[in-house]
Predict the structure.
Amino acid sequence: MKGKKCSKRLIIYEIRNVIGNPFIAFFGTVFPVMMLMIITFALKKEVPASMLLESNTSVFITMSLIIPMAVILLGHSANYSQELEKEIPVRMQLFGFPTGSIMIAKVVAQTITLTVTLLLYTVFAYAVVDLQIPSFSSALCLVMCLYALGILFFLFAHGLSNIIKKFGPTYTISMFFYFGVMMLCGMMGIRTEQLPKALKTLSSYLPMSYIANDFIDFWQGGSYNFGPMIQAFLFFGALCGLLVVYAGYKNRRVIK
């Protein structure tokens, strides 16, 4: 019973850490909605009426990618790097909180926050913007991809934080990666096809680029070749895994 109470308290503590960060609140909720409204408003003047619904939906899918990046990539890298810098995990272990319980609480808190944020974004978007209604399989595929990205972003942020262990450099690298991905994957109003060849090649290694550019093709039940996107997921997953492995190796060396 005591363990359950501690777990609940840990989860509540971690949720407060996430939602208490003003940068996460802005980039995870306000920013994607703001980008959605700005771009869809601009599309009214540039896109034929017959294509407006599809164009708006494409923007909606693209902007949804910002949410796991902001909530988990920026959120976990900011909060956890500060905790490491202040040696908070060590203090919590001294008070009887196992490392495994702490990490589980972080994952649960991030998942809850991501779910609520995605729901709010979706409800608001469908309330104020004309969007296509997806088929069940297409909507499920997008949700699964967003949560898969959330896992990878968590690993990326966790590994980076454990390697650097300082808030400033960790958050700077995370922000650079955040805006770099936005530029490469068509989230800044410039589509991937419009990028120079070198940047276009680089974007092909990021699963976010396939979600942003291709998901609209099967949003209402069309067919799609998932091969390249799966390969990009595997590549990005391997990169995130290497960060975590190297962080563990580096910390073992420091202990010795």
